[in-house]
Amino acid sequence: PALQVTSQESCHPEGSLPAPQLSLNVSLAHAGDTVTFRCLVPGESPMTRVIFCEDGQEAASQPITPGRFSYDFTHRVSGPGDAGDFSCWYQHRGDNNELVNSNLSTPKTLSVTDAEPVQDGGDPAIPAWDLYLILGILVPCALLLGLLGLLGDAAIGQFCSPRMLPPKNEDAVTYAALR
């Protein structure tokens, strides 16, 4: 589902559904940066759409995809005027076509500076949660390879007699001539 930029409607839902959680990949941005806001909605809550807010005004919304609980809003920073408080919430349309709102997420503040970004060697295009995902995959793979290496050494020792193994440097090798 595509993100839809919406009109500047007020973002103050009075809701009976639990509030979602909002996270952002950076709290301090520079002009030209892309900031990603992630709205995590409770899995048990019925939903129709997710709404992202900037400074109390609706900024964008997305229709809900069944089975999905994470929705992103990407914001390109043009300058200090893009600083503000961001939040999200969701709506559900009931059986009688009435709208039921969630409570508003706890706001996250985005600060924007004119200063040039300090390069710390990291890639600002990779959000922190993606790095954790990559590490979460690589570390178990490395451990699995190490375990397979140990099991392979044990299997060789168990199934091969010392006579089948190549001689070690300290072993004396004698050859006999047959006539």
TrEMBL record:
Residues in Ig-like domain copies: 20-105
Signal peptide positions (record): none
Gene3D superfamilies with a match to the protein in the record: Immunoglobulins (2.60.40.10)
Keywords: Membrane, Transmembrane, Transmembrane helix
Database matches in InterPro entries: Ig-like_dom (IPR007110), Ig-like_dom_sf (IPR036179), Ig-like_fold (IPR013783)
Keyword Transmembrane: yes
Keyword Transmembrane: yes
Transmembrane segments: 131-156
Full protein name: Ig-like domain-containing protein
Species the sequence originates in: Mauremys mutica (yellowpond turtle)
